[in-house]
Design goal:
With about 200 residues, the chain is an alpha/beta fold. The protein has one domain: Rossmann fold (3-Layer(aba) Sandwich). It has helices at about 10-20, 30-35, 50-60, 60-70, 80-85, 185-200; strands at about 1-5, 25-30, 40-45, 75-80, 90, 95, 105, 115-120, 125, 140-145, 145-150, 155-160, 165-170, 175-180. The strands form 3 sheets. Strands 2-1-3-4-14-13-12-9 form an 8-stranded mixed β-sheet, sandwiched between helices. Strands 6-5-7-11 form a 4-stranded mixed β-sheet, covered by helices on one side. Strands 8-10 form a two-stranded antiparallel ribbon. It starts with a strand and ends with a helix.
């Protein structure tokens, strides 16, 4: 069973619908106890980093996710969910993340349109089980205004170029993250989610 974490921000139903279409069982829950019993965890997210972390701490979900990471359970973060895995974010105010990956989250700036919203292709950097059987330069759907920088060596599996290099898929061990929305990225996104399930 995959536990989809409900911490008050996120596109929960669309993630579950994507899993349902592949006949993969999941539950949506805000209960730390329920999520702790799941074999794997997905942390979705749309919203502000500080609000997300506050909600997680108030519900005890932050501790559950950290413990699951130590136990080796496969964990996937999507969009804001991926950003929460890093050490710190500048969004709204300086805020500590879950610290599962080294790096920090900063605002997208430049001549580009912000938020970064739409389809961009992926370039591969470091092998990952998520990219098994997948060809490079496939398009995925992004919606974000912040991105990861100062990432530890070897964790960027794929990136997109939007004036800047945007880490799009990151992983270390049992921790996986996607800055884009696989559940909104058509057949290619479904394949990425299927590859995550196969890791489980």
């Amino acid at each position: 069973m995959i536990g989809i974490v409900d911490y008050g921000v996120g596109n929960l139903n669309s993630v579950q619908n994507a899993l349902n279409s592949m006949n993969i069982k999941s539950i949506i829950s805000s209960s730390a106890q329920e999520i702790s019993k799941c074999r794997s965890i997905i942390v979705p997210g749309v919203g502000a980093f500080p609000d997300a972390m506050e909600n997680m701490k108030n519900s005890g979900l932050d501790k559950v996710i950290k413990e699951a990471a130590k136990e080796g359970k496969p964990i996937l973060g999507i969009c804001l969910g991926m950003q929460l895995f890093f050490e710190e974010s500048d969004e709204v105010e300086k805020c500590q993340g879950l610290g599962l990956l080294k790096g920090n989250i900063i605002k997208l700036e430049g001549s580009i349109k912000i938020p970064h919203m739409g389809w961009n292709s992926l370039s591969f950097e470091t092998p990952s089980p998520l990219l098994s059987g997948i060809e490079e330069n496939q398009y995925v759907y992004f919606v974000h205004s912040y991105y990861a920088v100062n990432c530890e060596d070897g964790i960027i599996n794929a990136y997109s170029t939007y004036e800047k290099k945007i880490p799009a898929i990151v992983s270390r061990g049992n921790i996986f993250g996607m800055q884009f929305h696989p559940e909104k990225s058509g057949e290619f996104g479904q394949k990425l989610l299927k590859n995550f399930v196969e890791v489980i």
